[in-house]
Amino acid sequence: MSDDFPLRALHEVFSAIPDPRRRRGRRHPFPAILSLAFLGLVCRIREFATLQSWAAVHWELLQEPLGFNRRHPPHATTMSRALAQFSLADFQAAFGVWLLSLVDEEDLKVVAVDGKTACQGYEDGSPVHMLNVFAQRAKVVLAQWSVTGDKTNEPGELKLRLSSLLEDFPMIELLTGDAIFAQRPLAELLSGTTCDYLFQIKKNQGDMLDALETCFADRGEADAKEFDKKGVALKPVASGAIPRTPTTVETNCSSPTAASYSAWSVWSLSGGRKLFVM
């Protein structure tokens, strides 16, 4: 793989995005302009004039891999006009394809969903709340969506986006999240997919937590002999599938107790609803 492979791959996937410009007066390829603008954002360049100057400094390295065919980078006005018309949805889809060309699919099997607020995200200083899908092993954000209102709307946003997320990244096998996602509508939607989920359950969901503690009441307190010096469990910890009798699975996580104040719920199509006390 050549050193400039990521840049060439970026140009190739952006070639699938329709060029919104009229045929007359086109001087620079649209995929090349998109690629340059993307690199500028990665470098925290937000002004087209600054992007033009930056591209001129590095033009020898950028011109051929990005697909430009002229001696000088596009003018700031040219980029502004070209990028004012294209489809953001098409861009997101192409970006997902580009990510898949750079990472190992094994690193995308487990992803985390979490909401974060970016202070002063809008021009008027108002915060922007975003829902992110993060692949920890690959160290990349696979998807990011703006959430209307406060963080309580995160589960609803995930429901709306779940189908497209799994369509773009079919290798995802497990979706993890905090307690805000442990809701029946979202769980029912996930049960109809090939993706399992792992959501935390806390004391603010009292009935569900009581049911989990009752289910694992016979587990009792963890034996000190089950831990090595680093606090890692050496024996299996309890898990189970309602309404069947709890069984055990091998794990290297800390051993749970029946009095735990939080739990994790996993949906498995093959085994029904499985519960893990953490």
TrEMBL record:
Domain H repeat-associated protein N-terminal: residue ranges: 12-99
Q: Which Pfam family would be a valid example here? A: DDE_Tnp_1_assoc
Tell me the superkingdom of the source.
Answer: Bacteria
- InterPro entries in alphabetical order: ISAs1_transpos (IPR047647), Transposase_11-like (IPR051698), YbfD_N (IPR032806)
Protein name, per record? H repeat-associated protein N-terminal domain-containing protein
Q: Which organism is it from?
A: Lignipirellula cremea
